[in-house]
Write a structure and sequence with these properties.
The chain has 520 residues and is α/β, with parallel strands linked by helices. The chain has two domains: 166 residues, Urease, subunit C, domain 1 (Roll); 330 residues, TIM Barrel (Alpha-Beta Barrel), CATH 3.20.20.140. It is built from 18 helices and 19 strands. Strands 1, 2, 3, 4, 5, 6, 15, 18 and 19 form a nine-stranded mixed sheet that branches. β18 and β19 form a beta hairpin. α2 runs antiparallel to α18.
Amino acid sequence: MNKRILTLTTLFCFCSMLFYAQTAEGPFDQLIIRGVTLINGNGSPPLGPVDVVIEQNKITKVATVGYPGVVINPERRPQLKEGGKEIDATGMYLLPGFIDMHGHIGGKSQGADWDYVFKLWLAHGVTTVREPSGRGRDWALDLRGKSEKNEIIAPRIVQYTGFGSGAKYGINSPEEAREWVRENAKAGSDGIKFFGAAPEIMEAALDENNKLGLGSACHHAQLSVARWNVLHSARAGLTSMEHWYGLPEALFDDRTVQDYPLDYNYQNEQHRFEQAGKLWEQAAKPYSEHWNRVMEELLALDFTLDPTFNIYEASRDLQRARRAEWHEDYTLPSLWRFYQPSKISHGSYWHYWGTEQEISWRKNFQLWMTFVNEYKNRGGRVTTGSDSGFIFQLYGFAYVRELELLREAGFHPLEVIRSATLNGAEALKMDDQIGSIEVGKLADMILVEANPLENLKVLYGTGAIKLTEDNKVVRVGGVKYTISNGVIYDAKALLREVKDMVDVAKAEENFVLKQPGISD
């Protein structure tokens, strides 16, 4: 390392120590959030002003203290104890902490480590993350333990292991499947992420996992889905699905296999994602007899959909995803390189992506969103997941984009917030602890200075653009505080730390963010 790089790194470390004092406070014996408008996550309309009292990371009181625009009578307010802390949240909005049901904690190929990822999540109000089979079970469990003890700046981690991980010769029988599931539970994992397997192996693994009371999710990989789709998994006891693979296949009524071109190669990701964009048009038509029958069976099984719309958005509008305004300040150079067209990097399938592919994907989205919205309308559980770190989707920012896409699908903004909070808690069987702001629950919360129901963009770290009465362009919003595990995080300070990380990485490489194939 040369002297210039050493100086930059030393400066970054020094600045990080200074910022940490401003970034996190607590936990406190008592914390009172005063005069806030509450958006509770359970679908109820906003209510305020209220005072919320937290003691030892538990909500002990939610007190309505007055009426909008009326001076609050101090006698109606909970009293602050000696040594307690209060936040004047007049004019602000309080929401439960967001739950990301599909959050990878960085990746070696992307060059994104956990501290970078965690700060981006917390800066966008994400206080709980279901980690689906990322960089290894033991690695994730170690971070889970450190997060629980507040040894690191991190959200709560719910760790799911990729089915078969660590098995030297794979899982080749039902007996091996059951043995692996028992070992995974013994290691302390919270659940399993499946990708599909032979039917008898899937049945055995799901049965054993359910006996042990652990969670389950599945990305129904197309290599296995012809014999085992979402409906088979749900019948066997799977509790939630990732993305949408396996769902159109369950809706096929005139075929059993996707209409693959005869020169298709699954290992060619342009082939894989291009043809995936034509899948929903091959399924039964919306509201047809077969379409309704599949939906009703999934509803009866209390099955959870975690669509992760955002991770596929570049497929329908590559330029939009590639030029998102936050890349310049918050995307690491290594991550930016990973996103570029590649035959090797997963999700970098831009071999020759054009108008025809995007049009197919737009139609795909319309049909997919129709199913998800109607599933919600009939009482089904839909959650919010981001799957960031791929396909130009950045941690934290992509989560907010997922909220916007749920809104596009037809969700009322209050339904969007419920999907991001209480629905996720229910899917994780943690709704007695998190997901809404109620007495007895943990104090996972977000404070925002603008109303996210009016404009979800105020949740982005970059805020929303607004024109003032005197014709000035300003940025409004951005999460102000995220409260997680009893600690108050200054969301904007977290973003400054991330920007410093990116600036140092760029300086070390003399990196300038450019589009591929375009020179100065």
